[in-house]
Amino acid sequence: FMDKEERDLRWEEFCKKAKGATNNDQIFDYIPMDDYYKELRRLALEEAETYELAKRYYVVRQ
């Protein structure tokens, strides 16, 4: 499991990504709330999918 600091950093990165930020200056760019939520959801699902695939791959390789 991640420690709190690592989790906070990860959370921040996630937010930036969802807002379409490519650097720190852009993090406060306005984005409609609905779009932001949709993008967060998309990123989360993408990550979950990658996680599942990785998990399966590891099991298969045993």
TrEMBL record:
It comes from the Bacteria. This is Uncharacterized protein. The lineage of its organism: Bacteria, Pseudomonadati, Nitrospirota, Thermodesulfovibrionia, Thermodesulfovibrionales.
